[in-house]
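STRUCTURE REQUEST FORM
Protein name: Flagellar hook-associated protein 3
Source organism: Oceanisphaera arctica
Requested output: structure tokens
Priority: standard
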Amino acid sequence: MRISTLTIFEQNISSMNRQQGEFLKVGQQIASGRRVVNPSDDPQAASRAVGVKQSMAVTEQYTNARITVRNMLAQEESVLNSLGDGITRAKTLMIQAANGTSVSGSNVSEVRGIYESILGQANASDGNGGFLFGGYQSDSPPFVKNVDGAVNYVGDDQVREQRIDASRLMPVGDNGNTIFRSVTAGAGYVAEAGAANAGNVIFTGPAVVDATDPDYGVSFTLTFEVSDDSVSYRINDGDPQVYEAGQAIRFGCLSLTLEGSPVTGDRINLGLAKNMDADLFTTLEQAIAALEAPGGTEQQRAALSNTLSTVMRKLDNSLDTVLTARASVGARLNELDVIDTVAGNRMLNYEQTLSDLVDLDYVEAVSNYSLRKVGLQAAQKSFVDIQGMSLFNFLK
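Status: completed
Returned output:
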């Protein structure tokens, strides 16, 4: 078989190129630390690696989302802590006034300061240019003062949410209605004296004596009637009953103690806290107005006592609401920690899977590198030897 010189050269060059390509490929793997440098190296592993990388990217996005949510919840928890301290201090001042401690201008000023502080906390920023308690309307302060000084809520009743994991959409705050204008489901009854009361009757309570009573949840109104020889009261539209100061009266599920002397038309309204005005700002406004009012007459002192009793009950309910919200925030922060732990383990699994798919076994690669180097050198040496062979060397 006749083999031309050209064929010999082409075959040897092809062999050296192949050996050099394999040698460079192994060198590239060692330099990059990856077994699969190009998809053609292992198409199946490369395809699976793309899916794993996508899953890792999604997990990282959720991790960043949790960082944002954690910052917002931590900000809310701090505000709720300050809010609870303010309500507690206001309750302390109410107790002092109710116990007969003289109401000084400094005490009234302190209550006003608490009022303004709580208003500032209600309009607290979430750290991202929005407002914590505005719901989806977070671009403007959720609480504003009218020209008459009353505070109105102009946010919405929704709660912003953010996806922190594939299967979890977490609330990132609470709206202002929930924190400042509502009570917990377990809040009991609240009593309020009628605004037009002219007598000096004072109430203590109410106390729920039977929460299983069919009338639990019903609102009641005590209306007083005074004649020349007797004082009586009606429960809603019921029959008149004789009033005796200092004795507890029982109606429906409640017990209420009354003292003092009413006049005809005086009223006491009782209802579940959720059905009464639960606005924290209104409560503080009532307290300030009562503390600033003169207290020289028995009627004025009775009005102060009744207002303070109502305000203290409402402040307790507001504090319960704040503490409940704070507990909810703490539970969400704990959940974020749990999800972070799960996500961390998931990322480790992804990294291990990706390493198994594309990372290089250096021991095998170095051995293969040496082998390819020997092969390349052998191809080069054989080409040198062969290309020097010629029949003219044997002619004489």
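Reviewer notes: The chain is about 50% helix and 15% strand. Residues 188-276 form one domain.
Form closed.
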